[in-house]
Amino acid sequence: MKPLSELTKEAIKNLKLVCFDVDGVTVKKGTDISEVRTSEDTTLTVKTSNLSNEMRDKMLELKKHFFIAISSGRSSLYLTKVYSELLWGNAGLISENGIFTLLEGKLIQHEYFDKGTLQKIRNIVVDLKKIEGVNKDFRAFEPKQFLITLHAWNDMPEVREVVKRNDPEGEFYVWWNGEAFDIAPKRLNKGAGLKHLADYLHLSLEQTMAIGNGPNDKDMIDAAGIGVTTEPKSVQGDYYTTGIGHLGGAELIDKLLSLV
């Protein structure tokens, strides 16, 4: 790996698409989530950071030179709200770790799930709910269409046991990112999502760049023509950002704008 400072104009001469992770890359990390159920109603509260005006302006400037994609495990509705000023035109959103893409006013589902996969998803969710009240680390499920995202105070081995029991074939991944588990079929990931978007735009993966920081970003960083990591100790890439703290996405944008 090389520091991002060594990225050259020659290296990006064919670059057309830049894909950004969300948490810790373009917005500050952290999700505060809680769910309170009674016999009559349910109150779900989800609190996350906003896209800063500074980051928004940087991304809008970069959008003049490249197609901008946001790729996240978050839902399409969440991403649309946070990145509304980035849409539409030369920008798109990849949600639920590559299951959906939103661009040009269309929400595209890249794969339709068969009955067996849907049954596995349902059974996993049902069994995970049984952990609530038993393990104090259980917090709440984040609303998604297909991707299962369970927030927890700490890693819970029971989650992997539930998935293994309901998926003996090993078709599903279980990723812990420090605040939540993501669970979905292995074939559906951010790398596949980037490939779908590149195909839609008639681009090769060699014409793409991706930046991320977590386990769900590895497939995307590996698939892109140029992969950038903001957490080089845990995720490998061609380049790594060197700034201290969150939002390595800003460092990447500044570097790209200095080269175009």
From TrEMBL:
GO terms for cellular component: cytosol. One of its GO terms (molecular function) is magnesium ion binding. InterPro entries: HAD-like_sf, HAD-SF_hydro_IIB, HAD_sf. It holds the Pfam family Hydrolase_3. It comes from the Bacteria. NCBIfam families: HAD-SF-IIB (TIGR01484). This is Sucrose phosphatase-like domain-containing protein. It comes from Candidatus Woesebacteria bacterium GWA1_41_8.
